[in-house]
């Protein structure tokens, strides 16, 4: 099952910086937890990738071939199915990068370093607790089960940042670049050599199972922590005046995409090299078919390059769609938690109405083949229809919670 999830820090900016950036409208943009205007460009991108994340999970629970094969397996997939999966690759790296950017903005927006460090430590621990309880139960409708994905990785990253934010920002940026670019070089390491410490390798570096525990680690923490450090390191770009920021972010995005293309051509930075295909369309899909588990250097460059360009394009968005994306983007964790239960419950109810035993949808991560063998599933057009219906159902709740956070400053709200 593919997973994506939202960042947990709130983007902040001081009023002079926000005014110079030209990104906020005090009557519409809302405020941060510190009572300062928000950066709409961050919230809008975050809202878009939340919508894409919902698509990913709707496909997981509703598509008839979701548990039959990997949708990026070029020997079995279709171009539309591949594209449906690939576009959701944008979710996790965007969320993690924006979490790092948000931590930087909080560091200059009014929170003292000790205060921010304590908050990140508590917030990170809280995310890990949510991952181990509320989130995994939503995916499984059964507990206990270990399912460590990006919420756990973000939590671990915040705990790491609680210590690293005491270091100079350029040094944190250097650490992030080194991790993102270099962790793949250890892909051939045999964790069995570590003996009793082998589970630490699974938790930090490579997906896998932990001995004696039912479940699996989908998102080993360290590569994703590297992306968070990278976001924190490039944070100053987001407080430049609007025109300079747009040029800087566009240049960074294009540099990432050019670097991806060159590395892809040279077969460097991804364990799955470009495989030449006889069909030109599938040849292009193979070029884009980068590795997410764990996130390779090529994967990070391609997805972040696209996401940064989307962020710049979304600044021009106006009208109802913008309001919808802002509602999701200002309530990322709340919307994330809600959507898991909505999607899973909808699959169960529609499946039971169609004659599929309810037990098929309970413990779905433990026996995914049973879902496929039961005959459950819809075609892609129906999956898209369910996705839009789920987004429509989520919107009023996300909008209500965004307004609640705008009106009130209760401490507990900072944890949702």
UniProtKB/TrEMBL annotation:
Q: Where is the signal peptide?
A: none
Residue intervals of the Heparan-alpha-glucosaminide N-acetyltransferase catalytic domain: 38-248
Q: Does the keyword Nucleus apply?
A: no
Q: Where is this region: Disordered?
A: 1-30
Query: Lineage, please?
Result: Bacteria, Pseudomonadati, Pseudomonadota, Gammaproteobacteria, Lysobacterales
Task: Extract the InterPro entries matched here.
Answer: HGSNAT_cat
Which parts pass through the membrane? 86-108, 120-139, 145-167, 174-201, 221-241, 248-268, 297-315, 336-364, 376-397
List all Low complexity biased stretches: 1-21
Q: Which UniProt keywords apply?
A: Membrane, Transmembrane, Transmembrane helix
Pfam families linked to this entry: HGSNAT_cat
What is the protein's name according to its record?
Membrane protein, putative
Q: Tell me the organism.
A: Lysobacter capsici AZ78
């Amino acid at each position: 099952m593919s997973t994506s999830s939202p960042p947990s820090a709130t983007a902040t900016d001081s009023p002079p910086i926000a005014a110079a950036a030209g990104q906020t409208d005090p009557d519409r943009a809302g405020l941060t937890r510190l009572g300062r205007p928000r950066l709409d460009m961050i919230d809008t991108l975050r809202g878009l990738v939340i919508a894409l994340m919902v698509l990913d999970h709707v496909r997981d629970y509703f598509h008839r071939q979701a548990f039959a094969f990997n949708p990026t397996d070029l020997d079995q997939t279709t171009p539309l199915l591949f594209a449906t999966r690939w576009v959701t690759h944008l979710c996790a790296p965007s969320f993690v990068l924006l979490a790092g950017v948000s931590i930087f903005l909080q560091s200059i927006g009014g929170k003292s370093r000790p205060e921010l460090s304590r908050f990140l430590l508590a917030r990170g621990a809280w995310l890990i607790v949510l991952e181990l309880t509320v989130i995994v139960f939503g995916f499984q409708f059964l507990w206990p089960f270990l399912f460590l994905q990006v919420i756990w990785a973000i939590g671990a990253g915040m705990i790491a940042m609680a210590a690293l934010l005491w270091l100079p920002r350029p040094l944190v940026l250097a650490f992030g670049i080194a991790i993102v670019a270099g962790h793949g070089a250890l892909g051939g390491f045999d964790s069995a050599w570590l003996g009793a410490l082998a589970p630490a390798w699974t938790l930090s570096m490579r997906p896998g199972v932990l001995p004696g525990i039912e479940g699996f680690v989908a998102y080993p923490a360290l590569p994703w922590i590297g992306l968070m450090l990278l976001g924190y390191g490039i944070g100053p770009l987001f407080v430049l005046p609007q025109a300079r920021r747009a040029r800087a972010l566009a240049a960074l995005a294009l540099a990432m995409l050019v670097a991806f293309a060159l590395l892809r051509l040279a077969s460097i930075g991804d364990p799955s090299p470009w495989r030449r295909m006889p069909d030109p369309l599938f040849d292009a899909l193979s070029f884009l078919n980068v590795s997410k588990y764990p996130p390779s250097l090529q994967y990070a460059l391609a997805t972040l390059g696209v996401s940064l360009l989307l962020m710049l394009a979304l600044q021009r968005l106006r009208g109802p769609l913008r309001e919808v994306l802002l509602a999701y983007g200002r309530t990322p964790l709340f919307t994330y938690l809600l959507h898991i239960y909505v999607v899973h419950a909808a699959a169960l109810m529609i499946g039971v109405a169609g004659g599929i035993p309810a037990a098929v949808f309970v413990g779905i991560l433990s026996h995914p083949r049973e879902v496929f063998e039961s005959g459950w599933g819809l075609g892609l057009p129906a999956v898209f229809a369910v996705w839009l219906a789920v987004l429509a159902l989520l919107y009023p709740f996300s909008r209500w919670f965004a307004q609640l956070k705008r009106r009130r400053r209760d401490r507990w709200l900072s944890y949702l």
